[in-house]
Amino acid sequence: MSPFRAYRIFEENGKSAGRFVELSLDDLDPGEVVIQTHYSSVNYKDALAATGAGKVIRRFPCVGGIDVSGVVASSSDARFKAGDQVLVTGYDMGVARDGGYAEFVRIPADWVVQLPPGLSLFDAMALGTAGFTAALAIHRLEQNDLSPDKGKVIVTGATGGVGSLAINMLSQLGYHVVATTGKDSEHEFLKSIGANEILPRSSIDLTSKRPLEKPLWAGALDSVGSDTLAWLARTMQQDGAIASFGNAAGVELHTTVFPFILRGVKLLGVDSAATLMPLRKQMWQRLAGDLRPKALAQISNSVSFEKLPEVFPKMLRSEIRGRTVIEIGIKH
Ligand SMILES: NC(=O)c1ccc[n+]([C@@H]2O[C@H](COP(=O)([O-])OP(=O)(O)OC[C@H]3O[C@@H](n4cnc5c(N)ncnc54)[C@H](OP(=O)(O)O)[C@@H]3O)[C@@H](O)[C@H]2O)c1
Predict the structure, then answer these.
(1) 248 close to ligand 1 (CB < 6 Angstrom)
(2) How far is the CA of 272 from the centre of ligand 1 (A)?
(3) How do residues 18-51 score in pLDDT, each as one tens digit?
(4) Residue 271, Cβ neighbours under 10 Å: how many?
């Protein structure tokens, strides 16, 4: 096989630095399945990894990219054969093991998911870790008795990848969705993908010291963490449930126990990367079925592989709306 392009992240002078390199298959971590990449995507974690803004990389050098979709080029594992359309998200990809920002990916067979009927390889990356996380969050909330008749569901970080996909999925399931955003220019977009109400971030008092406030939400999906998550906890309805997956504003959480012991509020953690395969497959079936976002094309855009490094700083500055798919092998 001739050399192929990859975006590899190095540690130089104590800092992360990503650049395009030529690799051969033997340069990649071992694995039973070789995938010819069609698409990858950019998640918040990818931006942290590539820029060093967050210490998420555990092994240098490392090909970036926590997501990939493509076609199996070869497999020494009987579960996969050349020509299969597949996707991989999470595990150690792009942080401790060579990931999806390469024209070929070599990966353990245990991490590979067959592309479910109803999704294209492009769709799989328009969803990617973000869509998978939104699905997991909804699933966890449903398992904890959330249903549309219980009340409003709030989504924070609404214009982000997870947030915008979650809004569209929840709207399709019949929920009354409230979207919080820091982007005043995106209210119409959020309504067009299913938000019933918009709550501008500037209108929320994050500084209140009251342990409980007016109960507003039956469910919450939180991309933001920190003071926003504490505010969610004190504004949940009786028996409300929060799916916590994000830390866009920070990792600390200062709250009291009152939402939990006086209102029965449930705080549910979501870890997409380590999701076990049976649940992983179930979620991808749902993403191709009842959770498939009808506004997926509106929420996603694609850029060429060459433009990948331009996306990371924009994402960290919160200048991106929805999902960014990276065209690696195939043009959309
Ligand atoms: N646990 C998991 O398995 C998992 C999986 C995927 C993602 N995540 C995490 O979930 C979060 C969202 O990921 P993503 O890929 O959707 O990222 P993203 O596309 O960058 O979205 C994050 C959104 O959060 C909002 N935001 C950014 N900075 C903020 C701040 N300082 N205060 C309040 N809101 C802020 C912005 O939305 P608005 O401008 O609309 O407010 C932004 O679009 C990230 O923290 C990511 O690491 C976790």
Answers:
(1) yes
(2) 14
(3) 999 999 999 999 999 999 999 999 999 999 999 9
(4) 10
* Ligand 1 contacts CB of residue 315 (under 6 A): yes
Q: How far is the CA of 247 from the centre of ligand 1 (A)?
A: 7
d(CA 251, CA 215): 24
H or E stretch at 19: strand 15-23
**256: CB partners within 8 A, 6+ apart:** 211, 234
pLDDT bracket for residue 332 (50, 70, 90): very low
3-state secondary structure of 328: coil
* Distance of alpha carbon 247 from alpha carbon 224, whole angstroms: 5
Contact indicator for 300, 67 with CB cutoff of 8 Å: no
Strands (E) located in 166-290? 177-181, 197-200, 217-222, 236-244, 266-269
Predicted confidence (pLDDT) per residue in 148-159, tens digit:
999 999 999 999
Query: Which domains are seen in the chain, by residue range?
Result: 4-115+296-327 (3.90.180.10), 129-269 (3.40.50.720)
Q: What are phi and psi of 142, to 5 degrees?
A: -60, -40
Angle 121-143/161-172 helices, nearest 10 degrees?
A: 70
